[in-house]
Design brief:
A hairpin with a 2-residue loop joins strand 20 and strand 21. Helix 5 packs across helix 12 and helix 9 crosses helix 12. The chain contains twelve helices and 29 strands. The N and C termini lie far apart (108 Å). The chain is an alpha+beta fold. The strands form seven sheets. The chain has a six-stranded mixed beta sheet, with helices on both faces. The protein folds into three domains: 114 residues, Copper amine oxidase-like, N-terminal domain (Copper Amine Oxidase, Chain A, domain 1, 2-Layer Sandwich); 97 residues, Immunoglobulin-like (Sandwich), CATH 2.60.40.3500; 262 residues, Zn-dependent exopeptidases (Aminopeptidase, 3-Layer(aba) Sandwich), CATH 3.40.630.40.
């Protein structure tokens, strides 16, 4: 035992002096050479720069390898890349790019570097990936970008064709965004060609339409055969993905040439349609003292039309008298007169008497909130006899959706216009800002131009009802609307915006049929094309 006691310190000391094993090394091998790029399994020469935010790749060599056309303006501030039928707009130093009509924010901005403009991986994914079906994978452990093409996908496609008020809408709907390009080189036809995707055609559908003769769908393409003398514009809607074509007659008027032609074809606001809400037996909301909404909206619209004359534009009222006017007829008047703006004037109401302020709406299939949804339901209602009794509800829903598609093409401009109106009303009148909202208002669905509905106060509020009957207060409202329209007109036409305090009277001649200083006459209701469906319900109950 004594021997063990003497031996124990020696053993412990020897154990303490034993060398420790080195810690395990981290399994992160350093790359044996610089960053590289492989395309379909072969290495290609593309400049790569590693930044703190990630790798950047020379765009010009990739365009040469994969395809596309890269151009720059003289200043170098804007660079365009065309891939298939999509234009990609790039601003060096700006992380925002546009791909067709879509806007994307990148992880880092494209910048000038080795090999010209350099772009991050998400740029390549949003362009060549989404459009042509390439997959880009950056592997930091080997500092390598691999580029490969996705396998071919099978996509179902559905077709809807509807003709309303002189225009045909063709809708191709897909479960996800296809990889395609639009070919307009064939006379009288539009061909949607698939790129590394295959379509599952729907059951054949007979097309009986005055503007579209046939639509043929096979696994590689969709061919839309147009009638003689028509043209089509296309745009995209998301969730679900829809490719939409608006087909209409080509103008038979001779197109002028020279400087006059450039002036005639330049973007501009030349015709404005003002829509006084409600009318006739459809009174709209009723104020505490008994004043009906329909009277105030007509008065406000007439006063607005008189002021807009100083902008040198043609102004039409959908109604200039106390008459019932279906929603479809209101928008038909705007469409028939090729209006550049449509403004529907209304007054709000609430179960309580304390609500006040203004709201501006633009069209959306989904309402911003529950109150906006209730407002749309109320405005879309109407008196007995003005409804759609006997019509096919499914057909009505389809037409409603397709008209929504037509207005969706103008949604961004409608939103911009609505923001200008709401801003002017807030600044001028110091009213409660109830904001710009979206809702499925029926009166906006038929408009094929930027369109808004403005609620200029709560007629259910005794104080606002009293102010709305005061000419001086109405003049402030109308002046704010006029300034907003003048500002929007200046933005569209790229001219200096009017100074604060409103546009100054000009020397422009009044619109045809308009008495100077007086409201423009309404377009007569009988002149509007008859709706191809039963008229929608008008207005809302008090």
């Amino acid at each position: 035992m004594a021997f063990l006691c003497l031996l124990l310190p020696v053993l412990v000391g020897a154990q303490g002096e034993r060398p420790q094993a080195p810690p395990a090394a981290s399994p992160v091998p350093a790359p044996t050479r610089g960053p590289s790029v492989t395309l379909e399994g072969r290495e290609v020469q593309v400049p790569v720069t590693i930044t703190s935010s990630g790798p950047m790749f020379g765009l010009s060599p990739l365009v040469d390898l994969i395809g596309g056309e890269l151009t720059s303006d003289e200043s170098g501030e804007s660079i365009s890349l065309r891939i298939a039928d999509k234009d990609v707009v790039i601003g060096p130093g700006n992380a925002i790019i546009t791909v067709g009509d879509a806007i994307f924010s990148l992880s880092q901005p494209p910048t000038q570097g080795e090999g010209g403009l350099q772009v991050p991986v998400d740029f390549l994914t949003r362009t060549y990936g989404d459009i042509l079906g390439y997959v880009f994978e950056w592997r930091p452990e080997t500092a390598r970008l691999t580029i490969a093409r996705r396998g071919e996908r099978e996509l179902a496609v559905s077709l809807d064709v509807v003709h309303l008020q002189g225009m045909t809408t063709v809708v191709l709907q897909f479960p996800e965004e296809p990889r395609y390009q639009i070919n307009r080189s064939q006379p009288g036809a539009i061909v949607v060609e698939m790129i590394s995707d295959r379509l599952t055609p729907p059951a054949p559908k007979e097309i009986q339409d005055p503007l579209v003769q046939a639509v043929a769908i096979d696994p590689q393409r969709v061919r839309i055969q147009l009638a003689p003398g028509v043209q089509a514009a296309s745009y995209v809607l998301e969730n679900p993905f829809r490719l939409v074509f608006d087909v209409h007659q080509t103008s038979s008027v001779d197109v002028p040439t020279g400087p006059a032609a450039r002036t005639e074809q330049a973007p501009g606001i030349r015709t404005i349609v003002i829509d006084p809400g409600h009318g006739g037996s459809e009174t709209g909301a009723i104020g505490p003292s008994g004043v009906p909404e329909k009277e105030l909206t007509l008065q406000l619209s007439r006063e607005l039309a008189a002021k807009l004359g100083r902008l040198g534009v043609r102004v039409l009222l959908t109604r200039n008298d106390d008459v019932v006017l279906p929603h479809d007829t209101r928008t038909a008047i705007a469409n028939q007169n090729k209006a550049d703006l449509f403004v529907s004037i209304h007054l709000n109401s609430s179960l309580g008497s304390g609500a006040y302020g203004t709201e501006t709406y633009f069209l959306s299939p989904q309402a911003t909130d529950s109150r906006a949804a209730r407002a749309a339901v109320a405005e879309n209602a109407g008196p007995a006899g003005a409804g759609t009794t006997g019509a096919d509800p499914a057909a009505q829903d389809l037409e409603l959706i397709l008209w929504d598609l037509a207005q969706s093409h103008h949604m961004a401009e409608s939103q911009r216009f609505a923001n200008l109106i709401q801003g002017e009303l807030n600044q001028t009148l110091q009213l409660r800002d109830r904001g710009v909202k979206q809702a499925p208002f029926r009166v906006l669905i038929g408009a094929t131009m930027p369109a808004v509905l403005v609620e200029l106060g709560f007629v259910s509020n005794p104080d606002e009802e009293k102010k709305l009957q005061d000419p001086a207060y109405r003049d402030q409202l109308v002046e704010a609307l006029t300034r907003a329209i003048a500002r929007y007109k200046s933005q569209v036409e790229h001219t200096p915006e009017p100074a604060a305090g409103g546009a100054q009277p000009g020397s422009a001649a009044p619109a045809p049929g308009q008495v100077p200083g007086q409201p423009a006459p309404a377009a007569p209701a009988p002149a509007a094309p008859a709706p191809s469906r039963p008229p929608a319900k008008v207005g809302r109950p008090a």
